[in-house]
Amino acid sequence: MVENKVLFYATLFLAGFSFVLVIFLIRSFWRLSSHYQRLAAVKEGSLKDILDKLLAKITADEKEISLIKKQLADIQEKQQRRFSRVGMMKFNPFSETGGQQSFALALMNNLGKGLVLTSFHSRTGTRIYAKIIQEKMSKKGQALSKEEKLAVKNALKEKEE
């Protein structure tokens, strides 16, 4: 009696395993068949010709991708040198004028280089000065005013956010 039960369960297990295996094989065959049908539907020659054309297209695509990567690297390198950071500080340098019509405008790139344009407005006229910024500091002999320093700081702060 015990032998019959063991034999029954072993047979049941093998039948279940066989069923799962058959389902897996049918599914794999169906996938392979559908891939072959798509390849065979192309009427442009033999399977070898089709595969050769696909390989040639892959090679051409790889060359194009390589060229695009190179162009993107060039653009990214050039972008580092473009003015992309702006900071502005309005102020009133003279007591006889009001409205904060004077300003310091910092135009910086991602490398910490750029320029500061400073405009002083008074009743008699407006004067505009430019100072070159190298490595987040002004060039030698060009001290920055506190407004110009704040404009540079604002431009660089924008970079960090």
Descriptive overview:
Helix content is 56%, strand content 22%. With 161 residues, the protein is an alpha+beta fold. The protein has two domains: 44-81; 85-160, no CATH class. Strands 1-2-3-4-5 form a five-stranded antiparallel β-sheet. A hairpin with a 5-residue loop joins β2 and β3. The longest helix has 40 residues, at 2-41. The protein starts with a helix and ends with a helix. The relative contact order is 0.09.
Q: Structural class, from helix and strand content?
A: alpha+beta
**Secondary-structure element series:** HHEEEEEH
| Unreliably modeled segments | none
The whole-number mean of residue pLDDT values reads 85
Please compute the radius of gyration using only Cα atoms. 37 Å
**What is the tally of beta strands?**
5
Kindly estimate the percentage of residues that lie in beta strands according to DSSP: 15-25%
Terminus-to-terminus distance:
79 Å
Helical content, roughly?
55-70%
**Helix segment count?**
3
Q: How many structurally independent domains? A: 2
Strand line-up in the sheet with most strands: 1-2-3-4-5
> What is the makeup of the main sheet?
5 strands, antiparallel
